[in-house]
Amino acid sequence: MQTDLTARREDEVLSQGELAEVVDVTRQTINAIERNRYDPSLELAFALAHHFDCNIEDIFEPE
After folding, report:
1. Number of domains observed in the structure of the chain
2. pTM as predicted
3. SS3 22
4. Residue 45 belongs to domain spanning
5. Are 39 and 25 in contact (CB under 8 A)?
6. CA-CA-CA-CA dihedral for 15, 18, 20, 21, to nearest 10
7. Distance CA 63, CA 61 (A)
8. Residues 31-54 pLDDT 10s
């Protein structure tokens, strides 16, 4: 799954830890998503989309 989570996070000048705190996961989870080593749950994908005020498809694109 392709993601532009890193770019969106950096545009808001958020660290992985800060974003993780906002969506109630660990920094390691954000890191794993950004490195394409973990696909987020639907609940987490919605939380991230809500935070960035966009659709899930704007952040995550299936390969």
Report:
1. 1
2. 0.92
3. helix
4. 2-56
5. no
6. 170
7. 6
8. 999 999 999 999 999 999 999 999
